[in-house]
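Below is how a single chain appears once it has passed through the pipeline. First comes the sequence as given, then the structure the pipeline wrote out for it. We keep one example in the README because the format questions we get most often are answered faster by looking than by reading.
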Amino acid sequence: MRWTDIQQIAAQLAAKHPDRKPLTVEFPEVRDLVVGLDGFGDDPARYNVRILESIQLAWSDRKGRPPLSS
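Resulting structure:
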């Protein structure tokens, strides 16, 4: 999984952290949570604020949805 796999990352974050409110998680923590996901294989330093914001918004949108199928 790479930084650009926004929907897959969001689905995993929603499944792994169901009680978190994504829009209250600050970007440095979003980065750390993504890097800690199983299957994340991109360069941990190869992100930007726009990617983190996209992940955060997609994660918020995924709350309450079933996980993506593989």
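Helices lie at 6-16, 27-35, 49-62.

See the next section for the split statistics.
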